[in-house]
What does this fold into?
Amino acid sequence: MSKFDISESLLRKFAKLIEDAGLTEIEFEEEGRRLRLTKQTTSAVVAPQIISQGFPTVSTPPAPSSSDSSTSNSVQINDPDGFVVESAMVGTAYSASEPGKLPFVAVGDRVTEGQTLLIIEAMKFMNQVPSPKAGTVKEILFKDGDAIEFGQPLIVLGE
Amino acid sequence: MAHFNKILIANRGEIALRILRACQELGISTVAVHSTADEDLMHVRLADERVCIGPAPGAKSYLNQHAILAAAEITGADAIHPGVGFLSETAEFARKIKEHGYTFIGPSPDMIDLMGDKVTAKQAAREAGIPVVPGSTGEVETLDEAKIIAEEVGYPVLIKAASGGGGRGMQIAKDADDLERALSMASTEAKNAFGNAAVYLEKYLANPRHIEVQILGDQQGNVVHLGERDCSLQRRHQKVFEEAPSPGLTVTEREHIGEVTRAACEKLGYFSAGTIEYLYEDGEFFFIEMNTRLQVEHPITEFITSIDLVRAQIAVAAGEPLSFKQEEIKFQGHSIECRLNAEDPFSFVPSPGTVTRYHQPGGPGVRVDSHLYQGYSISPHYDSLVAKLVVRANTRDECLTRLRRALSEYVIDGVKTSIPLHEWLLDQTSVQTGDYSIKWLEEVLEKL
It folds into this structure.
Protein backbone atom coordinates (compact mmCIF):
# COMPACT_ATOMS: atom_id res chain seq x y z
CA MET A 1 0.00 0.00 0.00
CA SER A 2 2.78 2.38 0.73
CA LYS A 3 6.48 2.71 0.31
CA PHE A 4 6.60 3.24 4.01
CA ASP A 5 6.17 -0.37 5.10
CA ILE A 6 5.71 -0.47 8.82
CA SER A 7 3.66 -3.26 10.28
CA GLU A 8 0.89 -2.82 12.78
CA SER A 9 2.70 -5.09 15.22
CA LEU A 10 5.72 -2.78 15.17
CA LEU A 11 3.50 0.19 15.90
CA ARG A 12 1.88 -1.70 18.76
CA LYS A 13 5.32 -2.57 20.11
CA PHE A 14 6.30 1.08 20.12
CA ALA A 15 3.02 2.13 21.67
CA LYS A 16 3.49 -0.41 24.46
CA LEU A 17 7.05 0.77 24.99
CA ILE A 18 5.88 4.37 25.35
CA GLU A 19 3.30 3.26 27.90
CA ASP A 20 5.55 0.91 29.88
CA ALA A 21 8.56 3.16 30.02
CA GLY A 22 6.49 6.24 30.75
CA LEU A 23 7.80 7.99 27.65
CA THR A 24 6.02 10.71 25.69
CA GLU A 25 7.76 10.24 22.36
CA ILE A 26 9.66 7.66 20.28
CA GLU A 27 11.42 8.45 17.06
CA PHE A 28 12.65 5.64 14.83
CA GLU A 29 14.75 6.17 11.73
CA GLU A 30 15.99 3.63 9.22
CA GLU A 31 17.24 4.09 5.67
CA GLY A 32 15.83 7.55 5.31
CA ARG A 33 12.42 6.56 6.64
CA ARG A 34 11.35 8.06 9.88
CA LEU A 35 8.55 7.30 12.28
CA ARG A 36 7.63 9.37 15.27
CA LEU A 37 5.08 8.37 17.87
CA THR A 38 4.04 10.88 20.44
CA LYS A 39 1.71 10.58 23.35
CA GLN A 40 -0.51 13.54 24.20
CA THR A 41 -0.30 14.18 27.88
CA THR A 42 -2.66 16.43 29.72
CA SER A 43 0.03 17.12 32.29
CA ALA A 44 1.88 18.97 29.56
CA VAL A 45 -0.38 21.95 30.07
CA VAL A 46 2.06 24.30 31.67
CA ALA A 47 -0.10 27.36 32.08
CA PRO A 48 -0.67 28.55 35.59
CA GLN A 49 -3.71 27.01 37.21
CA ILE A 50 -4.03 29.65 39.85
CA ILE A 51 -7.75 29.88 39.57
CA SER A 52 -9.13 26.46 40.23
CA GLN A 53 -12.70 25.34 40.64
CA GLY A 54 -14.40 26.76 43.64
CA PHE A 55 -12.28 29.87 43.67
CA PRO A 56 -14.53 32.86 44.08
CA THR A 57 -15.08 34.33 40.66
CA VAL A 58 -16.79 37.40 41.96
CA SER A 59 -15.64 37.92 45.46
CA THR A 60 -17.38 41.10 46.47
CA PRO A 61 -21.13 40.81 46.26
CA PRO A 62 -22.48 44.26 46.94
CA ALA A 63 -25.36 43.19 49.16
CA PRO A 64 -24.40 43.75 52.79
CA SER A 65 -26.91 41.14 53.88
CA SER A 66 -24.86 38.41 52.30
CA SER A 67 -22.67 36.89 54.97
CA ASP A 68 -21.03 34.56 52.51
CA SER A 69 -18.29 36.61 50.89
CA SER A 70 -17.50 34.17 48.15
CA THR A 71 -19.87 33.63 45.31
CA SER A 72 -18.94 30.91 42.93
CA ASN A 73 -20.18 30.02 39.51
CA SER A 74 -19.21 26.40 39.88
CA VAL A 75 -22.58 25.54 41.37
CA GLN A 76 -23.65 21.99 41.89
CA ILE A 77 -26.77 21.03 39.98
CA ASN A 78 -28.33 17.99 41.63
CA ASP A 79 -31.02 17.26 39.09
CA PRO A 80 -29.28 16.44 35.81
CA ASP A 81 -32.61 16.09 33.96
CA GLY A 82 -33.88 19.47 35.04
CA PHE A 83 -34.15 22.54 32.79
CA VAL A 84 -31.55 25.08 33.84
CA VAL A 85 -32.47 28.76 33.66
CA GLU A 86 -29.22 30.66 33.02
CA SER A 87 -28.56 34.35 33.47
CA ALA A 88 -28.67 36.38 30.28
CA MET A 89 -26.82 39.28 31.89
CA VAL A 90 -24.26 40.39 34.42
CA GLY A 91 -25.62 41.90 37.61
CA THR A 92 -26.90 41.35 41.13
CA ALA A 93 -29.62 38.77 41.71
CA TYR A 94 -32.57 39.45 43.98
CA SER A 95 -35.04 36.76 44.94
CA ALA A 96 -37.77 39.20 46.05
CA SER A 97 -39.14 42.50 44.75
CA GLU A 98 -37.76 44.32 47.81
CA PRO A 99 -36.00 43.42 51.05
CA GLY A 100 -38.32 41.71 53.52
CA LYS A 101 -40.85 40.70 50.89
CA LEU A 102 -41.56 37.07 50.10
CA PRO A 103 -39.36 35.63 47.37
CA PHE A 104 -40.80 35.35 43.86
CA VAL A 105 -40.45 31.59 43.92
CA ALA A 106 -39.49 28.83 46.35
CA VAL A 107 -38.44 25.21 45.77
CA GLY A 108 -41.55 23.16 45.00
CA ASP A 109 -43.54 26.07 43.51
CA ARG A 110 -45.39 25.57 40.24
CA VAL A 111 -44.54 28.34 37.79
CA THR A 112 -46.14 29.34 34.51
CA GLU A 113 -44.29 30.49 31.42
CA GLY A 114 -43.47 34.18 31.72
CA GLN A 115 -43.81 34.27 35.50
CA THR A 116 -41.08 36.29 37.23
CA LEU A 117 -38.47 34.05 38.85
CA LEU A 118 -36.09 36.70 40.13
CA ILE A 119 -34.73 40.17 39.44
CA ILE A 120 -31.25 40.99 38.20
CA GLU A 121 -30.09 44.50 38.87
CA ALA A 122 -27.60 45.85 36.36
CA MET A 123 -26.61 49.50 36.09
CA LYS A 124 -29.43 50.59 38.42
CA PHE A 125 -32.02 48.84 36.28
CA MET A 126 -34.17 46.07 37.68
CA ASN A 127 -34.57 43.34 35.08
CA GLN A 128 -37.24 40.75 35.73
CA VAL A 129 -36.23 37.27 34.69
CA PRO A 130 -39.31 35.46 33.34
CA SER A 131 -39.64 31.70 33.41
CA PRO A 132 -38.94 30.37 29.91
CA LYS A 133 -41.46 27.55 30.45
CA ALA A 134 -44.04 26.14 32.83
CA GLY A 135 -42.82 23.68 35.47
CA THR A 136 -41.85 23.11 39.07
CA VAL A 137 -38.95 24.84 40.79
CA LYS A 138 -36.52 22.05 41.67
CA GLU A 139 -33.49 24.05 42.80
CA ILE A 140 -32.54 27.67 43.40
CA LEU A 141 -28.84 28.10 42.76
CA PHE A 142 -28.31 31.70 43.88
CA LYS A 143 -28.69 33.62 47.09
CA ASP A 144 -30.36 36.98 47.45
CA GLY A 145 -27.75 39.64 46.62
CA ASP A 146 -25.35 37.37 44.75
CA ALA A 147 -23.27 38.80 41.93
CA ILE A 148 -24.19 36.98 38.74
CA GLU A 149 -22.23 36.35 35.53
CA PHE A 150 -23.52 35.84 32.02
CA GLY A 151 -24.55 32.22 31.55
CA GLN A 152 -24.57 31.42 35.29
CA PRO A 153 -27.20 28.78 36.23
CA LEU A 154 -29.90 30.34 38.42
CA ILE A 155 -32.84 28.00 38.77
CA VAL A 156 -33.55 24.38 37.85
CA LEU A 157 -37.06 23.61 36.62
CA GLY A 158 -38.66 20.17 36.46
CA GLU A 159 -41.93 18.85 35.15
CA MET B 1 1.39 55.61 43.50
CA ALA B 2 -1.85 53.94 42.62
CA HIS B 3 -5.00 55.84 43.26
CA PHE B 4 -6.90 52.92 41.83
CA ASN B 5 -7.62 49.85 43.88
CA LYS B 6 -9.15 47.71 41.18
CA ILE B 7 -9.02 47.93 37.41
CA LEU B 8 -11.38 46.15 35.07
CA ILE B 9 -9.73 45.07 31.81
CA ALA B 10 -12.29 45.38 29.01
CA ASN B 11 -10.41 43.38 26.41
CA ARG B 12 -8.96 39.95 25.66
CA GLY B 13 -5.86 38.19 24.34
CA GLU B 14 -2.32 39.47 24.54
CA ILE B 15 -3.24 43.09 25.21
CA ALA B 16 -5.44 42.13 28.19
CA LEU B 17 -2.48 40.19 29.58
CA ARG B 18 -0.20 43.20 28.99
CA ILE B 19 -2.54 45.43 31.01
CA LEU B 20 -2.91 42.82 33.74
CA ARG B 21 0.86 42.66 34.10
CA ALA B 22 1.09 46.44 34.55
CA CYS B 23 -1.68 46.35 37.18
CA GLN B 24 0.00 43.55 39.10
CA GLU B 25 3.31 45.41 39.16
CA LEU B 26 1.47 48.46 40.51
CA GLY B 27 -0.28 46.39 43.19
CA ILE B 28 -3.72 47.06 41.69
CA SER B 29 -6.35 44.30 41.79
CA THR B 30 -7.68 43.13 38.44
CA VAL B 31 -11.03 42.10 37.05
CA ALA B 32 -11.01 40.11 33.81
CA VAL B 33 -14.22 40.18 31.81
CA HIS B 34 -14.57 37.49 29.19
CA SER B 35 -16.92 35.76 26.81
CA THR B 36 -18.05 32.16 27.18
CA ALA B 37 -15.38 31.21 24.60
CA ASP B 38 -12.55 32.79 26.61
CA GLU B 39 -12.67 31.10 30.01
CA ASP B 40 -9.19 29.66 29.43
CA LEU B 41 -7.49 32.89 28.40
CA MET B 42 -4.24 33.49 30.23
CA HIS B 43 -5.24 36.82 31.76
CA VAL B 44 -8.57 35.37 32.90
CA ARG B 45 -6.63 32.70 34.78
CA LEU B 46 -4.28 35.24 36.32
CA ALA B 47 -6.80 37.95 37.25
CA ASP B 48 -7.94 38.41 40.82
CA GLU B 49 -11.57 38.27 39.74
CA ARG B 50 -13.28 37.28 36.55
CA VAL B 51 -16.74 37.85 35.19
CA CYS B 52 -18.29 36.20 32.16
CA ILE B 53 -20.06 38.99 30.29
CA GLY B 54 -21.61 37.30 27.27
CA PRO B 55 -21.48 34.73 24.51
CA ALA B 56 -18.56 34.29 22.09
CA PRO B 57 -19.43 36.91 19.43
CA GLY B 58 -17.62 40.14 20.32
CA ALA B 59 -20.72 42.25 19.67
CA LYS B 60 -22.46 40.53 22.57
CA SER B 61 -19.53 40.41 24.97
CA TYR B 62 -16.47 42.63 24.47
CA LEU B 63 -18.57 45.31 22.75
CA ASN B 64 -21.42 45.00 25.24
CA GLN B 65 -21.04 48.27 27.15
CA HIS B 66 -23.89 47.49 29.50
CA ALA B 67 -22.47 44.11 30.53
CA ILE B 68 -18.98 45.56 31.10
CA LEU B 69 -20.36 48.36 33.28
CA ALA B 70 -22.47 45.84 35.21
CA ALA B 71 -19.32 43.78 35.78
CA ALA B 72 -17.55 46.90 37.11
CA GLU B 73 -20.52 47.48 39.39
CA ILE B 74 -20.66 43.99 40.91
CA THR B 75 -16.92 43.78 41.43
CA GLY B 76 -16.46 47.30 42.75
CA ALA B 77 -13.81 48.24 40.18
CA ASP B 78 -12.86 51.91 40.09
CA ALA B 79 -11.34 52.20 36.62
CA ILE B 80 -11.70 50.51 33.24
CA HIS B 81 -8.88 49.96 30.74
CA PRO B 82 -10.29 49.44 27.23
CA GLY B 83 -7.09 48.03 25.66
CA VAL B 84 -6.91 48.30 21.87
CA GLY B 85 -9.72 47.67 19.41
CA PHE B 86 -13.19 46.78 20.75
CA LEU B 87 -14.43 49.81 22.79
CA SER B 88 -11.11 51.64 23.07
CA GLU B 89 -12.16 54.41 20.65
CA THR B 90 -15.86 54.56 21.43
CA ALA B 91 -16.54 57.97 22.97
CA GLU B 92 -19.99 56.90 24.14
CA PHE B 93 -18.43 54.12 26.25
CA ALA B 94 -15.86 56.47 27.77
CA ARG B 95 -18.67 58.91 28.56
CA LYS B 96 -20.86 56.24 30.18
CA ILE B 97 -17.96 55.06 32.32
CA LYS B 98 -17.52 58.60 33.61
CA GLU B 99 -21.25 59.07 34.20
CA HIS B 100 -21.36 55.95 36.32
CA GLY B 101 -18.53 57.20 38.49
CA TYR B 102 -15.68 55.09 37.14
CA THR B 103 -12.50 56.27 35.46
CA PHE B 104 -11.84 55.56 31.79
CA ILE B 105 -8.14 54.87 31.26
CA GLY B 106 -7.71 56.91 28.12
CA PRO B 107 -8.25 60.45 26.84
CA SER B 108 -11.40 62.53 27.29
CA PRO B 109 -14.54 61.35 25.44
CA ASP B 110 -14.63 64.68 23.55
CA MET B 111 -11.11 64.04 22.25
CA ILE B 112 -12.12 60.56 21.06
CA ASP B 113 -15.07 62.15 19.24
CA LEU B 114 -12.94 64.85 17.67
CA MET B 115 -10.30 62.44 16.38
CA GLY B 116 -12.74 59.70 15.46
CA ASP B 117 -14.31 61.71 12.65
CA LYS B 118 -12.11 62.03 9.53
CA VAL B 119 -13.23 65.55 8.69
CA THR B 120 -13.04 67.08 12.18
CA ALA B 121 -9.78 65.24 12.89
CA LYS B 122 -8.06 66.63 9.80
CA GLN B 123 -9.31 70.11 10.57
CA ALA B 124 -8.25 69.94 14.22
CA ALA B 125 -4.86 68.56 13.21
CA ARG B 126 -4.28 71.34 10.68
CA GLU B 127 -5.28 74.02 13.18
CA ALA B 128 -2.92 72.54 15.79
CA GLY B 129 -0.02 72.83 13.35
CA ILE B 130 0.13 69.29 11.99
CA PRO B 131 0.91 68.95 8.26
CA VAL B 132 -1.91 67.43 6.21
CA VAL B 133 -1.96 66.19 2.61
CA PRO B 134 -2.40 69.31 0.47
CA GLY B 135 -5.31 69.39 -1.96
CA SER B 136 -8.74 70.83 -2.69
CA THR B 137 -10.82 71.79 0.32
CA GLY B 138 -13.89 70.20 -1.19
CA GLU B 139 -15.28 69.02 -4.50
CA VAL B 140 -13.40 69.97 -7.68
CA GLU B 141 -15.94 70.94 -10.32
CA THR B 142 -14.04 72.15 -13.36
CA LEU B 143 -10.82 71.34 -15.15
CA ASP B 144 -9.59 74.91 -14.69
CA GLU B 145 -10.15 74.69 -10.97
CA ALA B 146 -8.34 71.35 -10.87
CA LYS B 147 -5.39 72.82 -12.81
CA ILE B 148 -4.95 75.69 -10.37
CA ILE B 149 -4.95 73.39 -7.32
CA ALA B 150 -2.72 70.81 -9.01
CA GLU B 151 -0.13 73.50 -9.82
CA GLU B 152 -0.17 74.54 -6.18
CA VAL B 153 0.32 71.09 -4.65
CA GLY B 154 2.56 69.77 -7.43
CA TYR B 155 2.21 66.76 -9.74
CA PRO B 156 1.46 63.88 -9.63
CA VAL B 157 -1.98 64.42 -8.13
CA LEU B 158 -4.67 61.99 -7.10
CA ILE B 159 -8.32 62.48 -8.13
CA LYS B 160 -10.59 60.70 -5.65
CA ALA B 161 -14.33 60.08 -5.43
CA ALA B 162 -15.82 62.16 -2.62
CA SER B 163 -18.01 59.24 -1.55
CA GLY B 164 -15.43 56.62 -2.49
CA GLY B 165 -13.50 53.78 -1.01
CA GLY B 166 -11.71 50.58 -2.02
CA GLY B 167 -9.71 52.21 -4.79
CA ARG B 168 -12.65 52.83 -7.12
CA GLY B 169 -13.11 56.29 -8.49
CA MET B 170 -9.39 56.95 -8.05
CA GLN B 171 -7.09 58.23 -10.81
CA ILE B 172 -3.54 59.56 -10.84
CA ALA B 173 -2.68 62.50 -13.09
CA LYS B 174 1.05 62.55 -13.93
CA ASP B 175 1.08 66.08 -15.29
CA ALA B 176 -1.15 68.91 -16.57
CA ASP B 177 -1.79 67.16 -19.90
CA ASP B 178 -3.01 64.06 -18.08
CA LEU B 179 -5.37 65.98 -15.79
CA GLU B 180 -8.40 66.11 -18.07
CA ARG B 181 -8.34 62.34 -18.65
CA ALA B 182 -7.90 61.55 -14.93
CA LEU B 183 -10.64 63.95 -13.91
CA SER B 184 -13.25 62.61 -16.31
CA MET B 185 -12.38 58.97 -15.64
CA ALA B 186 -12.50 59.35 -11.87
CA SER B 187 -15.75 61.24 -12.14
CA THR B 188 -17.37 58.60 -14.37
CA GLU B 189 -16.11 55.76 -12.14
CA ALA B 190 -17.39 57.60 -9.09
CA LYS B 191 -20.80 58.06 -10.67
CA ASN B 192 -21.05 54.42 -11.70
CA ALA B 193 -19.77 53.04 -8.42
CA PHE B 194 -21.32 55.39 -5.90
CA GLY B 195 -24.01 57.26 -7.78
CA ASN B 196 -22.17 60.50 -7.10
CA ALA B 197 -19.78 62.04 -9.64
CA ALA B 198 -18.20 64.45 -7.13
CA VAL B 199 -14.41 64.17 -6.91
CA TYR B 200 -11.67 65.97 -5.02
CA LEU B 201 -7.98 66.40 -5.62
CA GLU B 202 -4.93 65.87 -3.44
CA LYS B 203 -1.19 65.42 -3.74
CA TYR B 204 -0.30 61.88 -4.77
CA LEU B 205 2.31 60.09 -2.69
CA ALA B 206 3.96 57.39 -4.78
CA ASN B 207 5.97 55.46 -2.21
CA PRO B 208 5.42 56.84 1.27
CA ARG B 209 6.48 55.31 4.57
CA HIS B 210 4.10 54.94 7.50
CA ILE B 211 5.61 56.89 10.36
CA GLU B 212 3.76 57.38 13.63
CA VAL B 213 4.68 59.42 16.66
CA GLN B 214 3.86 58.24 20.16
CA ILE B 215 2.77 60.90 22.58
CA LEU B 216 1.89 60.90 26.25
CA GLY B 217 0.07 63.68 28.06
CA ASP B 218 -1.16 64.31 31.58
CA GLN B 219 -4.23 66.12 32.88
CA GLN B 220 -2.06 69.05 33.98
CA GLY B 221 -1.35 69.94 30.33
CA ASN B 222 2.13 68.42 29.94
CA VAL B 223 2.78 66.47 26.76
CA VAL B 224 5.89 64.55 25.71
CA HIS B 225 6.67 62.57 22.57
CA LEU B 226 8.34 59.17 22.73
CA GLY B 227 9.75 59.16 19.23
CA GLU B 228 8.48 57.51 16.10
CA ARG B 229 7.69 54.01 14.91
CA ASP B 230 8.01 52.89 11.32
CA CYS B 231 5.08 50.61 10.43
CA SER B 232 5.51 50.62 6.66
CA LEU B 233 5.56 46.84 6.37
CA GLN B 234 1.84 46.29 5.91
CA ARG B 235 -0.49 44.00 4.10
CA ARG B 236 -4.05 45.14 3.39
CA HIS B 237 -3.56 48.03 5.82
CA GLN B 238 -2.61 45.56 8.56
CA LYS B 239 0.76 46.17 10.14
CA VAL B 240 3.08 43.17 10.02
CA PHE B 241 6.48 44.31 11.28
CA GLU B 242 7.29 47.54 13.08
CA GLU B 243 10.51 49.18 14.11
CA ALA B 244 11.78 52.12 16.10
CA PRO B 245 13.51 54.31 15.26
CA SER B 246 12.63 54.44 11.55
CA PRO B 247 15.53 53.53 9.25
CA GLY B 248 14.19 56.10 6.77
CA LEU B 249 14.40 59.33 8.78
CA THR B 250 17.31 61.64 9.40
CA VAL B 251 18.02 62.88 12.93
CA THR B 252 16.71 66.32 11.98
CA GLU B 253 13.48 64.93 10.52
CA ARG B 254 12.96 62.77 13.61
CA GLU B 255 13.39 65.66 16.02
CA HIS B 256 11.24 67.92 13.86
CA ILE B 257 8.21 65.61 13.58
CA GLY B 258 8.47 64.63 17.24
CA GLU B 259 8.35 68.25 18.34
CA VAL B 260 5.60 69.23 15.86
CA THR B 261 3.45 66.35 17.14
CA ARG B 262 4.18 67.09 20.79
CA ALA B 263 3.37 70.78 20.43
CA ALA B 264 0.14 70.04 18.52
CA CYS B 265 -1.08 67.60 21.18
CA GLU B 266 -0.24 70.12 23.88
CA LYS B 267 -2.32 72.68 22.00
CA LEU B 268 -5.18 70.18 21.70
CA GLY B 269 -5.01 69.52 25.45
CA TYR B 270 -4.53 65.82 24.85
CA PHE B 271 -3.92 63.52 27.80
CA SER B 272 -3.16 59.76 28.08
CA ALA B 273 -1.29 57.78 25.42
CA GLY B 274 -1.98 58.63 21.80
CA THR B 275 -0.45 58.23 18.39
CA ILE B 276 -0.46 60.44 15.33
CA GLU B 277 0.05 58.55 12.10
CA TYR B 278 1.75 60.13 9.10
CA LEU B 279 2.66 59.30 5.56
CA TYR B 280 6.25 60.33 4.95
CA GLU B 281 7.79 61.00 1.55
CA ASP B 282 10.80 63.03 0.44
CA GLY B 283 11.29 64.73 3.78
CA GLU B 284 7.64 65.68 4.23
CA PHE B 285 5.04 64.37 6.66
CA PHE B 286 1.29 64.22 6.03
CA PHE B 287 -1.34 63.49 8.70
CA ILE B 288 -3.34 60.26 8.29
CA GLU B 289 -5.16 60.00 11.61
CA MET B 290 -4.81 60.04 15.35
CA ASN B 291 -5.35 56.93 17.44
CA THR B 292 -6.66 57.94 20.84
CA ARG B 293 -5.55 54.76 22.58
CA LEU B 294 -2.64 52.43 23.23
CA GLN B 295 -1.23 50.85 20.05
CA VAL B 296 -0.49 47.18 19.47
CA GLU B 297 3.12 48.06 18.62
CA HIS B 298 3.73 50.10 21.79
CA PRO B 299 6.42 47.67 23.11
CA ILE B 300 9.05 48.87 20.61
CA THR B 301 8.68 52.38 22.02
CA GLU B 302 8.89 50.99 25.55
CA PHE B 303 12.08 49.17 24.61
CA ILE B 304 13.92 52.21 23.25
CA THR B 305 12.69 54.69 25.89
CA SER B 306 12.46 52.42 28.97
CA ILE B 307 9.05 53.99 29.66
CA ASP B 308 6.14 51.70 30.53
CA LEU B 309 3.25 53.16 28.52
CA VAL B 310 0.47 51.22 30.25
CA ARG B 311 1.77 52.21 33.64
CA ALA B 312 1.93 55.82 32.49
CA GLN B 313 -1.65 55.62 31.15
CA ILE B 314 -2.86 54.39 34.53
CA ALA B 315 -0.96 57.09 36.43
CA VAL B 316 -2.26 59.85 34.17
CA ALA B 317 -5.84 58.55 34.42
CA ALA B 318 -5.50 58.70 38.20
CA GLY B 319 -4.65 62.40 37.85
CA GLU B 320 -0.91 62.21 38.40
CA PRO B 321 1.41 64.48 36.42
CA LEU B 322 3.98 62.87 34.13
CA SER B 323 7.07 61.96 36.15
CA PHE B 324 9.51 62.95 33.39
CA LYS B 325 10.11 65.85 31.04
CA GLN B 326 10.85 65.72 27.32
CA GLU B 327 14.56 66.40 27.79
CA GLU B 328 14.81 63.53 30.29
CA ILE B 329 13.64 60.94 27.76
CA LYS B 330 16.58 58.97 26.39
CA PHE B 331 16.25 57.08 23.14
CA GLN B 332 18.55 54.08 23.25
CA GLY B 333 19.14 51.35 20.70
CA HIS B 334 16.80 49.84 18.17
CA SER B 335 13.68 47.71 18.54
CA ILE B 336 11.59 45.57 16.18
CA GLU B 337 8.22 43.91 16.68
CA CYS B 338 6.89 40.98 14.65
CA ARG B 339 3.18 40.34 14.78
CA LEU B 340 2.49 36.63 14.89
CA ASN B 341 -0.95 35.68 13.71
CA ALA B 342 -2.58 32.26 13.75
CA GLU B 343 -2.81 32.05 9.97
CA ASP B 344 -1.05 30.62 6.96
CA PRO B 345 2.18 32.68 6.63
CA PHE B 346 1.74 33.36 2.91
CA SER B 347 -1.89 32.77 1.97
CA PHE B 348 -3.03 34.50 5.21
CA VAL B 349 -5.91 32.06 5.65
CA PRO B 350 -6.80 31.97 9.38
CA SER B 351 -5.67 28.89 11.28
CA PRO B 352 -7.52 28.56 14.58
CA GLY B 353 -6.97 25.42 16.67
CA THR B 354 -5.21 23.98 19.67
CA VAL B 355 -1.58 24.76 20.42
CA THR B 356 -0.05 21.31 20.91
CA ARG B 357 3.47 22.50 21.71
CA TYR B 358 4.63 25.88 22.82
CA HIS B 359 8.03 27.26 23.57
CA GLN B 360 8.80 30.94 23.45
CA PRO B 361 12.20 32.53 22.88
CA GLY B 362 14.14 34.27 25.62
CA GLY B 363 17.60 35.57 26.29
CA PRO B 364 18.95 39.11 26.12
CA GLY B 365 16.77 41.78 24.54
CA VAL B 366 13.78 39.55 23.83
CA ARG B 367 10.21 40.23 24.92
CA VAL B 368 7.18 38.13 24.04
CA ASP B 369 3.69 39.47 24.63
CA SER B 370 1.42 36.51 24.11
CA HIS B 371 -1.49 34.78 25.77
CA LEU B 372 -0.55 31.43 24.25
CA TYR B 373 0.39 28.35 26.24
CA GLN B 374 0.57 24.65 25.49
CA GLY B 375 -2.95 23.28 25.30
CA TYR B 376 -4.58 26.67 24.64
CA SER B 377 -7.25 26.60 21.97
CA ILE B 378 -7.21 29.61 19.63
CA SER B 379 -10.79 30.68 19.08
CA PRO B 380 -12.08 31.42 15.56
CA HIS B 381 -14.24 34.22 16.95
CA TYR B 382 -11.55 36.88 17.34
CA ASP B 383 -8.55 38.61 15.83
CA SER B 384 -5.82 36.19 14.74
CA LEU B 385 -3.01 38.07 16.54
CA VAL B 386 -1.63 35.56 19.04
CA ALA B 387 1.83 36.87 19.88
CA LYS B 388 4.13 39.83 19.52
CA LEU B 389 7.81 39.02 19.39
CA VAL B 390 9.76 42.14 20.28
CA VAL B 391 13.53 42.46 20.31
CA ARG B 392 15.93 45.21 21.25
CA ALA B 393 19.63 45.72 20.55
CA ASN B 394 22.11 48.59 20.41
CA THR B 395 22.08 48.84 16.62
CA ARG B 396 19.61 47.94 13.88
CA ASP B 397 21.93 45.23 12.51
CA GLU B 398 22.27 43.59 15.91
CA CYS B 399 18.53 43.84 16.27
CA LEU B 400 17.94 41.96 12.99
CA THR B 401 20.40 39.24 14.03
CA ARG B 402 18.74 38.90 17.40
CA LEU B 403 15.32 38.73 15.77
CA ARG B 404 16.46 35.89 13.52
CA ARG B 405 17.83 34.05 16.54
CA ALA B 406 14.60 34.57 18.51
CA LEU B 407 12.38 33.45 15.61
CA SER B 408 14.40 30.25 15.30
CA GLU B 409 13.78 29.48 18.98
CA TYR B 410 10.03 30.00 18.76
CA VAL B 411 7.92 26.81 18.68
CA ILE B 412 4.17 27.03 18.13
CA ASP B 413 2.78 23.67 16.98
CA GLY B 414 -0.79 22.74 16.15
CA VAL B 415 -1.65 25.90 14.21
CA LYS B 416 -0.02 27.79 11.38
CA THR B 417 1.60 31.09 12.30
CA SER B 418 3.39 34.03 10.68
CA ILE B 419 6.81 32.87 11.90
CA PRO B 420 7.89 31.69 8.40
CA LEU B 421 6.77 35.03 6.91
CA HIS B 422 9.01 36.91 9.32
CA GLU B 423 11.94 34.57 8.65
CA TRP B 424 11.42 35.21 4.94
CA LEU B 425 11.23 38.97 5.54
CA LEU B 426 14.63 38.91 7.24
CA ASP B 427 16.12 37.41 4.06
CA GLN B 428 14.92 40.31 1.92
CA THR B 429 17.46 42.97 1.01
CA SER B 430 14.89 45.77 1.43
CA VAL B 431 14.23 44.71 5.01
CA GLN B 432 17.94 44.31 5.75
CA THR B 433 18.67 47.81 4.47
CA GLY B 434 15.45 49.36 5.75
CA ASP B 435 14.61 50.61 2.28
CA TYR B 436 10.88 49.92 2.01
CA SER B 437 7.63 51.86 1.63
CA ILE B 438 4.04 51.00 2.55
CA LYS B 439 3.62 49.41 -0.89
CA TRP B 440 6.71 47.18 -0.80
CA LEU B 441 5.37 44.13 1.09
CA GLU B 442 2.14 43.88 -0.87
CA GLU B 443 4.01 44.15 -4.15
CA VAL B 444 6.58 41.45 -3.38
CA LEU B 445 3.93 39.11 -1.96
CA GLU B 446 2.01 39.37 -5.22
CA LYS B 447 5.07 38.20 -7.16
CA LEU B 448 5.63 35.11 -5.00
